[in-house]
Each structure stands twice: as C-alpha cells, then as structure tokens.
Design goal:
Layout lengths: L10 E2 L10 E4 L4 E4 L5 H4 L3 H4 L3 H4 L5 E6 L4 E7 L8 E2 L7 E6 L4 E7 L5 E8 L9 E6 L5 E6 L4 E6 L7 E7 L7 E3 L5 E5 L16 E7 L4 E8 L21
Parallel strand pairs: 1-5
Antiparallel strand pairs: 2-3, 3-4, 4-5, 6-7, 7-8, 8-9, 10-11, 11-12, 12-13, 14-15, 15-16, 16-17
C-alpha cells in the first residue's frame, strides 16, 4: 500500500496512510479501487474501550487508492476520512463509478471518472440522522445501478437509497433488521436480500443486543418483507459474518 513515506509513484490528495481493507476491480477500465480500515491493535480491542481512547481513534483509515489493475501500481490516493469500508462498482457497461460508506462519519462517497477522464472522490450523502453515528458497514448496489442498500451496525437498520442519479442519492426507505446488523447480499434478480449480524467478536454488542442471525427478506421495490430467520446463537453456530453468492455461470 502507498504511504506518505513511500507513495510508490501515486498522486496523493492529502495523506497516504497505508491501511487496506476491501478491493474491487472494474476490468474494462483496468482500474482497481481499495479502501481502508484500521490496524490489528484497534480491531482486537473491545469497541466500547476503543472509542474512549482518543489516540487510538486517530488510527483509522482515511483513504481510498485507485490502482492500475494489471500493473498493480497505485495511481492516486483519495482523501476519504472516516474509515471507508466496502467498495461497490456500478454494473452498467457505461457507468464508471463506485460507492463506499465511511463507518465513523456515516457518509456515502462516490468515486467516479469525470468528463476529462480523471478519477475523483466526492462525498454525496449521509446515512442515518445527522449527528448520530450509526456506523454504516456493508453496502449492496442493485444490478440496474439504481438502488443502494446500506447496513448500519449501530442502529441495526438497512437504509435504502435511490441512486439513479449517483451524485445525488435519495433515501427512500429504512427498516430495522435487528439490534445489530452487518452484511447485506442480494440475489441477482434483486428480489431477495440476506442479512447477517456479526461485525467483529470484539465489536459486537453485549447482552440481549448481541443477536446473531441470518435473515432473509423479499424486496418488491418498495419494502422489505421478512421470509425466514436463523438464530445462530440458539443453534450454536457462532457469529455469521460474510456471505458470498456466486454468479449463475458457476452452477452451469
């Protein structure tokens, strides 16, 4: 990863902190976009203790890096403060942009190619009530690039944005999934969504709020309707975190 000390030839907007997290590729443009989180010392601490440590809270990522994918060469380091996590490229063949959400500042960011062929990063929206850090963690962009689902660990909600105009996301729906919620995945036809609950063992909530589940919902374009729920705690299955659904071609 590029750093202030060793930028590896990348253009740096403000700072290159060296943190890494998610990485996604847009093959037809030969670009990869990576995000940042924090270091081992932070994510192995209890979250309630961590947020009381002002110095430790300074050690969160505030960058995203645009790469030449084939050369694995960092090209530009964007300043995206607040720990940007998941990267989701648009699916359309002419849509050259990606979304991320920043966990600590509850912002939506857009990384896009402008009319001059330059890549830029811009804050385009807010998740949850202003002034309340709801800790957005995972996001999922629909196959038609028109709907963005954003999970917020802090209040256990899924926020749904109309992103038909990606520079101007518009909140159209929200629903409480549980006392805590982490990952969200869609079926390829956009009719079903699945949610899991666990962020990190050290960061999950305590007591009754420490729900551990996999839940399935249908989505009709207007609301989420629950279909099933698996209680991982009751079944002694551990903490459900990541879901990965393959493409149809994998099954043929």
């Amino acid at each position: 990863m590029p750093t202030d000390r060793d930028p590896r030839g990348a253009e740096i907007e403000s700072v290159a902190d060296g943190y890494g997290y998610d990485a996604r590729v847009l093959p037809r443009k030969n670009v990869m976009l990576s995000s940042s989180f924090t270091g081992w010392a932070n994510y192995m601490r209890e979250f309630g203790d961590l947020v009381q440590d002002a110095e430790a809270m300074k050690n969160f990522g505030q960058t995203m890096v645009l790469w030449d994918f084939h050369a694995r060469q960092p090209c530009k380091v964007f300043h995206v403060p607040g720990a940007p996590l998941e990267v989701r490229w648009a699916w359309g063949p002419r849509n050259n942009f990606a979304f991320t959400a920043t966990a600590l500042t509850s912002k939506l960011w857009l990384v896009f190619e402008d009319q001059d062929g330059q890549w830029r990063a811009r804050e385009v929206g807010h998740v949850g009530p202003e002034g309340q850090g709801v800790l957005p963690v995972d996001i999922s962009l629909s196959a038609d690039d028109r709907t963005l689902f954003v999970n917020a660990f802090g209040d256990g909600k899924c926020y749904v944005f109309d992103v038909s105009h990606p520079h101007h996301p518009r909140l159209v729906y929200e629903k409480v999934i549980g006392r805590q919620v982490n990952m969200v995945s869609q079926s390829w036809d956009g009719k079903r969504l699945y949610f899991t609950s666990s962020l990190l063992a050290k960061w999950d909530k305590k007591g009754e709020d420490n729900e551990q589940f996999l839940k399935g919902y249908t989505w009709d374009g207007r609301e989420l309707r629950p279909q099933f729920s698996v209680d991982f705690a009751a079944a002694r299955l551990g903490r459900p975190h990541m879901m990965a659904f393959g493409s149809a071609s994998l099954y043929n």
